[in-house]
Amino acid sequence: MTTPPVNLKISTLSDPSVAAHLSENRGPAESELTHPPVFELKGVTVSYNDNPAISDVSFSVKVGEVTALIGPSGCGKSTLLRSFNRMNDLISTASVTGSLQYHGADLYASKVDPVEVRRRIGMVFQKPNPFPKSIYDNIAFGPQLEKRRGNYSEVVERALTRAALWDEVKDKLKESAFTLSGGQQQRLCIARCLATNPDVILMDEPCSALDPIATSRIEDLMSELKSEVTIVIVTHNMQQASRISDKTAFITTDVSEGGSRVGRLVEFDITSKIFTNPTDSRTEGYVTGRFG
Predict the structure, then answer these.
(1) What secondary structure letter does DSSP report for 176?
(2) Considering only CA atoms, which of 85, 124, 134 is closest in space to residue 210?
(3) What is the CATH number of the domain that holds 170?
(4) Least confident segment among 156-160, 233-237, 255-259, 286-290
(5) What is the C-alpha end-to-end distance of the chain, expressed in Å?
């Protein structure tokens, strides 16, 4: 398996040492048995108005794997996911502490450009959110914004092919994206993300609004894409997590002495172990449906 280089634009990063870290190709050789980490979290806490929403999270996300974040509603899964590409920066009351490294570089270093981070670490949201544009223009938007040289039609075809959508839309590229079904719109959003050649794709419950057939298509797509990109997914669907992920993090909610709720990582391990032989009884209770 090969992994695309992490080619963050040095021109967008004013700190040369940070740019050097993020520009290095850290993809594994075919013979490597252990995938290197894309993300390393150590004591990560995300707070709103100085009140922790999720606290003291530590684990690694490896190249070429699907990592699932599971846990009851309100435990901070989506908040944690947004910290991977600095989406929480867009919330004025949010703050992130601890260490979150991306390919060995501090993702929250002051001179790292968060816009460039989000180009390399794309995101697919719970509900499909195509732009009010044509199918073609949805996919070409990112490359055009970057003023990338080359043939945009080739970029559009490649992205739609990677998202398993090309054959369904190749004859109606100029039609509105809103003419597509919900499942097609979600794959369009994945294709739009892929058009900028991300290193990582974050998915926040991408199938929750889809029917079983569309969900199956998205799951198959994730399994295919992990040979090219690393995926981190938030899901409430235990069967989905067990089917498509390589590693799983179980997060639950504790109540502090002051009565506030805070998410905490209970267990992180190989998915098969989480679902068949978890270490913590709370994990077992959640994955077997006894609570949550």
Answers:
(1) B
(2) 124
(3) 3.40.50.300
(4) 255-259
(5) 37
- Rg (alpha carbons) of the chain, rounded to whole number: 19
Residue 280's CB: how many other CB atoms inside 10 A?
14
Total structural domains in the chain? 1
DSSP 8-class letter at 290: S
Q: Say which DSSP state 255 is in.
A: E
- 56 located within any domain: yes
CA 122, CA 117: separation in Å to the nearest integer?
9
Residue 184, CA distances (Å) to 132, 146, 155, 225, 239 in order? 15, 25, 18, 17, 22
Angle, to 10 degrees, between the axis of helix 152-162 and the axis of helix 135-145?
Answer: 110
Distance in angstroms (rounded) separating the CA atoms of residues 185 and 128: 6
* 292 domain-assigned: no
Query: What are the tens digits of pLDDT across the range 9-52?
Result: 333 333 444 444 444 433 333 334 467 899 999 999 999 999 99
DSSP state of 24: S
Which residue in 166, 174, 171, 163 sits closest to 136, CA to CA? 174
- 4 is a domain residue: no
> Which domain range does residue 199 map to?
10-287
Inside any domain, residue 196: yes
Q: Sign of the CA dihedral 10, 15, 21, 22?
A: negative
pTM: 0.85
The kind and range of the H/E element at 155 are helix 152-162
